[in-house]
Amino acid sequence: MPNVVLFHAEGCHLCEKARAVLRAELGEAFEEVDISGDDALEERYREWLPVVEIDGQRAFVYFVDPAALRRKVAQSPG
């Protein structure tokens, strides 16, 4: 199973939608990282939230397409 990470922040409605898609497709098989209060993470991700990375590669920003997520996870060597 690949390493899937959701970068999010409190109060981000798009982050909630992305989390719902990830849970529907992957169950609990993904990590969540709240960027709030971490200057380095906020600088890197804030304008793109939510961000989903698969095996360290940015796969989605703003929205997560369920079919594309399934395809990317299936194609991942992880």
What does this entry look like structurally?
There is one protein chain. The protein is α+β, with helices and mostly antiparallel strands. It has a domain at 11-49. It is 40% helix and 23% strand. The chain has 3 helices and 4 strands; from the N terminus they run E-H-E-H-E-E-H. It has helices at residues 13-26, 39-45, 66-75; strands spanning 4-8, 31-34, 51-54, 57-61. It has a 4-stranded mixed sheet with strand order 2-1-3-4, covered by helices on one side. The longest helix is centred in the N-terminal third of the chain and has 14 residues, at 13-26. The relative contact order is 0.27. The model has no long low-confidence stretch (mean pLDDT 97).
Summarize the structure.
With 78 residues, the chain is an alpha+beta fold. Helices cover 40% and strands 23% of the residues.
Structural class: alpha+beta
Order of secondary-structure elements: EHEHEEH
Indicate the percent of residues in helices: 25-40%
Biggest beta sheet attributes: 4 strands, mixed
Report low-confidence residues grouped into runs of 5 or more.
none
Rg, nearest Å: 12 Å
Terminal CA distance reads 5 Å
Kindly estimate the percentage of residues that lie in beta strands according to DSSP: 15-25%
The side-by-side strand order for the widest beta sheet comes to 2-1-3-4
Overall mean pLDDT score?
A: 97
Strand segment tally: 4
Number of helices: 3
Q: What is the general shape?
A: globular
Characteristic key phrases:
3 helices, 78 residues, four-stranded mixed β-sheet, 23% strand, alpha+beta, globular
